[in-house]
Design goal:
It comes from Limihaloglobus sulfuriphilus. With 1082 residues, the chain is of the alpha/beta class. Helix content is 54%, strand content 7%. It is globular.
């Protein structure tokens, strides 16, 4: 057994104190001992509040249980034993502040009187306690005493709620059960969630440069831990098999484990589809929702209403609801109208295209497995997996496919698999092989298994063919009608399970374990019927057949090539959607080299428009990746590295070709720092192999150290958006001394995103706390909090002058978190009084609220309270009328995080409004450069603007072309179209800035103006272009005939908006296809 001296070297002082206490005291409460030991083994650092919760729950003692106990004599022994243990625990390792308060709530003391052996206090109301006295003769006496001051029960002080704990426990078990099903028996702790990206708007970029698949946003790394204390609303969008459901379930489990009081509720969209959401208030929605959770707690309705601010909604499967086009957006709108905060909604990309311009929503997406994660996942089977999937690398990077590849390799069934369809085929064969895979010890004959398989195939097709389609969730009645075997037998094969939707009527459905299984089985059924193949090809633009068509091509090499040839020979449109589709189908089967070259050569002739280029790059890669990488290497060798990187930056492959990577890295060493930045910002660093990642990062660090200020900042910005291995973070520390404060801030922010702990880092941050630049001090404070460096010596910083209001909002809560003793509090508050530029009322309100909420108002004198608030009656008002807020350390964390941003949104808005007024005055200047710069600054304020701003911007449309152009961009960026008459927009389309005309055209469609004069104006503007932009979705079929003789389009936007159209309004496709073919002019 380790000695205490050995143990002390490994642990913090506080942790060591607890370990010593457990060894020195033989606690009578065994549950307490076990729980404490478990907690200590799992945690390197001890959170006292969470520890006290464990202690309290271990006793199973509450004021309710005590008050309901009839026989206090028999109960007294338990009270005596547990309170004695509790008191010793509290006295041994609680902070003085905590101990002072807790001992008033639930404590025990021993009287020196002869008759009385012990006395135990239990708070029953805020104003009285029950006193249990035990005498030598064994008798006990219960009395009630009125308290001289208000006391808070311990369970309330610790924010302990038995219903909350029970509800979260039920959710936790639900998450664990579902995760086990999703992970196919693998350990939950071994599951590593995929990395995330967040899509943001870059005001400086034209949306034409962004691709359809990117939802017209710029994507940056996003740390998953940001969702554990979820604020705001997120759309998680990723394609089939990426693991959206598994991600949500793991997120649900991790939120519960964090024990932050939040209630993460997982729901499938189908469970709430009949709630009539959009027309109901949030409280009404919760009342309906309570029926789904009535077995979780005694009164689910009251519980949900009471805890409505703590609920996190994890809603899955928007793309799986019945319907097409507007059905998706209508369902999303209803959910968003009802749930205004703490929401993650998942969907495939096609179902949420109309939400992409909603700036109140954050778009997230799951990244594929990185090369390092793939190697870790496959372990000893990595080389086999690489060889197996050399023609279709996506099989290694998508979780569902990766699982199947690994299982087949382990079982020795992977030979000859070289495309995605063959992988599914081999996996399904494995499940239906009685010699290989056992089904609950059932003895099913081969003929019966074949019958079951055929039933699955027909059922899958029938469900998708429905209008609207039934995706993944098949109504029980359809399953019973379509299948030729009993539904119970279908459930034995592991492809699906019977699931009861938690609606009021408890509808039963057959639920496929993954939607891609249904799509594969449907493709098998279709492949055996020529009429069904023709049907799918005629409806190929309908999203429900997208994955089915890919499987269909891969099932049979001869038929697959016939399908590709048929698509290639059809009349195509100017942006070549059929050519692109044929290219995407090439990896699904063995296509003759001649056909690959035909597709590749045709693609090279397609103009490289900004909105079209990302899909063009991927089509080139998919049609013939050997020629693609040969072209890239040729570009690099001929010095056209910018163009090569541009192709690679849009590539949706999981990684780059190693030889191509090496050439790029080798060439970079001969480039100037400015050119390195220009090239590297378009490379997805995470796709590079580990060695090349480090080389790129070292190059960026050199750019920071040796480049000019602009180059240094650009390099720091790229690094800030990159996940960097902690082994090389120490190389960044010297950059903290850079002369450009903006560079320093970016580096500090980057360090805060890691778990990096280093003595040298601590010293650097201490120096930055003394910096004269308030923004650097502000970012340092935030980083210190993220890294939990609360033991920093901040006394010098406190004693220094703080001139920045926002910085003060960051510093004050940090100080309060650190300082518990009276002298420290008074020293801090005295210092606050010296801050002449500070909003005294708000800062002092933070202090007094915190002290009052934690029972520490006695630490600060009445004189200082009055001085802080400037007037005695104000201090008295806050002391008497401010409702007490119960804050544990977790809550205080949240409180401080919100203050750091800064605290008061209203103050922020006041500042923004004042700046806005100043900028609007500048718009009246005569100098064009001032006006243009001012318009840009207004956009950077990220405010929604107002009617006056719109009016001023409109007046500028008659100014010189440069000002008019900037004014139009301002209108676009601030979403001010609702304040503008369509006629003015119609005139603005004549702007000489062609890209701006495209933006306006796109905006007209987005805001759904149905004025035919505008449409005619668009026709005349783009008469030379032979395609169609049909973004305004408001016209009915009969009105389409109005446009049949008109050449109408936007050359750049036609491609991405047509994709948006067929994804959201399939009902118009046949008419539009005829129109396009009628007006075709190559």
């Amino acid at each position: 057994m380790e000695t205490l001296e050995q143990k002390k070297k490994q642990l913090s002082d506080e942790h060591f104190k607890i370990v010593k206490f457990l060894r020195d005291n033989e606690l009578k409460n065994e549950i307490l001992s076990d729980n404490l030991n478990t907690h200590l083994n799992e945690k390197e650092k001890v959170d006292v509040i969470n520890l006290l919760k464990i202690i309290y729950k271990s006793f199973g003692l509450s004021q309710k249980s005590i008050s309901e106990k009839k026989d206090m004599h028999s109960y007294h022994r338990f009270v005596s034993r547990t309170t004695g243990d509790l008191n010793r625990v509290l006295q041994s390792f609680c902070h003085n502040k905590t101990l002072h308060a807790i001992q008033l709530y639930f404590a025990t003391y021993h009287s020196e009187k002869i008759k009385n052996i012990g006395c135990h206090l239990v708070c029953t109301t805020p104003k009285e306690v029950k006193v249990f006295k035990k005498y030598k003769n064994g008798s006990t006496k219960e009395t009630t005493k009125v308290c001289s001051h208000e006391i808070t029960p311990l369970e309330e002080a610790l924010n302990f709620d038995s219903d909350l704990e029970q509800f979260r426990s039920e959710l936790k078990q639900d998450a664990i059960d579902n995760l086990r099903d999703k992970l196919h028996g693998e350990k939950i702790e071994d599951y590593r969630p995929l990395e995330l990206e967040i899509g943001t708007f870059d005001e400086k970029k034209n949306t034409a440069e962004k691709s359809f698949i990117d939802h017209n946003r710029d994507w940056k790394p996003f740390h998953r831990d940001m969702l554990l204390d979820l604020q705001g609303r997120y759309i998680l969008t990723s394609d089939t098999g990426r693991g959206k459901t598994t991600f949500l379930r793991r997120l649900q489990l991790d939120i519960i484990k964090k024990d932050n009081g939040l209630i993460p509720i997982y729901l499938h969209v189908s469970e709430i589809s009949d709630f009539n959401l959009g027309k109901k208030k949030f409280e009404s929605f919760l009342r309906n929702l309570s029926d789904l959770f009535k077995d979780y707690v005694k009164d689910a309705k009251s519980f949900l209403l009471k805890n409505k601010d703590k609920i996190v909604f994890l809603i899955d499967g928007l793309d799986q609801i019945p319907g097409v086009g507007s059905a998706y957006i209508n369902a999303a709108d209803e959910i968003l109208k009802t749930i205004s905060n703490r929401l993650v909604l998942t969907s495939r990309p096609f179902a949420i295209t109309q939400l992409e311009q909603n700036r109140d929503l954050a778009f997230l997406r799951l990244k594929p497995f990185s090369p390092d994660l793939i190697e870790e996942y496959y372990g000893d089977h990595y080389d086999i997996a690489i060889d197996l999937c050399h023609r279709c690398r996506e099989m290694l990077s998508i979780p569902m496919l990766a699982y199947m590849v690994r299982l087949l390799i382990i079982e020795g069934q992977a030979g000859g698999v070289d495309n995605r369809t063959q992988l599914y085929e081999r996996f399904i064969d494995y499940l239906f092989d009685p010699q290989e895979y056992k089904h609950e010890n059932l003895n099913i004959s081969e003929s019966k298994l074949l019958e079951i398989r055929r039933s699955y195939e027909k059922l899958s097709y029938d469900a998708i063919n429905n209008e609207p389609p039934d995706l993944q969730q098949i109504p029980f009645d359809l399953a019973h009608y379509s299948a030729s075997v009993e539904v119970d037998i279908l459930l034995k094969l592991g492809l699906s399970q019977l699931y009861e939707i938690r609606r009021k009527e408890r509808e039963k459905i057959l639920y496929f374990s993954h939607q891609s299984f249904q799509e594969y089985l449907a493709a098998v059924h279709i492949s055996e019927h020529e009429d069904l193949i023709a049907k799918v090809l005629n409806e190929k633009w309908n999203p429900k057949w997208k994955e089915v068509l890919r499987f269909l091509v891969g099932l049979n090499q001869v038929k697959g090539n016939e399908i590709i040839d048929r698509i290639l020979n059809e009349n195509d449109f100017f942006f070549r959607p059929k050519l692109l589709l044929a290219a995407k189908l090439v990896p699904e089967t063995k296509v003759p080299l001649a056909t690959q070259n035909i597709i590749y050569d045709r693609l090279l002739k397609v103009p490289k428009f900004p909105g079209f280029f990302p899909d063009l790059a991927n089509a080139l890669y998919q049609s013939n990746y050997t020629r693609f990488y040969s072209m890239i290497r040729s570009l690099i060798d001929h010095g056209e590295i910018d163009q090569a990187v541009d192709f690679l930056s849009h590539l949706h492959a999981m990684s780059y070709d190693n030889a191509t990577e090496d050439r790029i890295i080798h060439k970079l060493q001969y480039y100037s720092y400015e050119n390195i930045i220009h090239i590297v910002k378009n490379i997805d660093i995470q796709k590079l192999n580990r060695n090349n990642q480090k080389k790129i990062i070292f190059s960026l660090i050199n750019c920071i150290k040796l480049g000019d200020n602009t180059t240094s900042f650009s390099a720091a910005k790229i690094l800030n958006d990159t996940q960097i291995d902690e082994s090389i973070l120490h190389r960044l520390l010297p950059c903290l001394e850079h002369e450009n404060p903006n560079v320093v801030i970016k580096i500090i922010n980057l360090l805060g995103k890691t778990e990096f702990q280093h003595d040298e880092l601590t010293l650097h941050l201490l120096r930055k706390l003394k910096d004269t630049n308030p923004n650097i001090v502000f970012e340092t404070m935030v980083t210190c909090r993220k890294l939990k460096l609360f033991d920093l010596d901040i006394s010098e910083m406190i004693s220094s002058k703080i001139y920045d209001d926002h910085l003060s909002y960051a510093v004050i809560p940090y100080v309060l978190y650190q300082v518990y003793h009276k002298h420290g509090i008074e020293q801090v508050t005295a210092k606050i009084l010296e801050l002449s530029k500070l909003n005294i009322y708000h800062i002092s309100h933070i202090i007094l609220t915190y002290l009052k909420a934690n029972g520490l108002e006695w630490l600060i004198s009445h004189d200082i309270r009055c001085a802080l608030l400037q007037e005695p009656h104000t201090a008295k008002k806050i002391d008497n009328n401010t409702p007490p807020i119960k804050l544990d350390h977790v809550t205080m964390d949240k409180k401080m995080e919100s203050t750091i941003q800064p605290t008061f949104v209203s103050d922020q808005q006041i500042v923004k409004d004042k700046i806005f007024e100043k900028l609007e005055r500048q718009l009246r200047f005569d100098a064009p450069d001032i006006v243009i710069e001012t318009l840009g600054e207004i956009v950077c304020l990220e405010t929604c603007g107002n009617t006056e701003t719109a009016r001023i911007a409109l007046l500028m449309l008659n100014e010189n072309p440069e000002i008019a152009t900037e004014a139009l961009y301002t209108i676009l960026d601030l979403d001010l179209f609702n304040s503008i008459q369509p006629r003015i927009l119609c005139e603005a389309i004549d702007t000489p800035d062609y890209k701006l005309a495209e933006e306006l055209l796109f905006a007209i469609g987005r805001y759904k103006y149905y004025d035919k004069n505008i449409i005619e104006k668009i026709f005349s503007k783009f008469m030379d272009i032979s395609a169609i932009l049909y973004k305004p979705f408001g016209y009915n079929k009969s009105e389409l005939s109005f446009y049949t003789d008109t050449n109408f389009a936007c050359y750049h936007y036609g491609y991405s908006l047509f994709k948006s159209l067929y994804s959201n309004n399939c009902i118009f496709l046949n008419e539009i296809r005829c129109l396009l073919q009628h007006n075709q002019n190559d």
